[in-house]
Amino acid sequence: MMEIRLLPIVGSFAENKDSAKKIRLDQIVPALDRNDEVTLNFEGVDSTTQSFIHALISDLIRKYGNDVLDRIYFKSCNKIVQQIINIVVDCVQEAE
Amino acid sequence: MNIYLPNSAFLGNIDPFLRSFDAKDPEILEISANKKWISIHPVVLAMVAALGLTIKPENIILEKLEAKSKHYLERIGLFKLLGLKSGIKITEHEAAGRFIPLSKIKDSDELSRFIVDMIPLLHLEPKQAEPIKYTVSELVRNVFEHACSKEGAILCAQFYKKSNTIRIGIADTGIGIRQSINVSHKTASDIEAIKLALTPGITGTTSRIGGTEFNAGAGLFFIKSIAKVSRNFFVIYSGNAMYKLLKASAKTERARLYIDPFRDRHSTCENLPHWQGTAVGIDIALEKTKEFSELLDFMRKIYVRAISEQKKAKYKKAKFI
Question: Do residue A84 and residue B296 have CB atoms under 8 angstroms apart?
Answer without folding.
Answer: yes
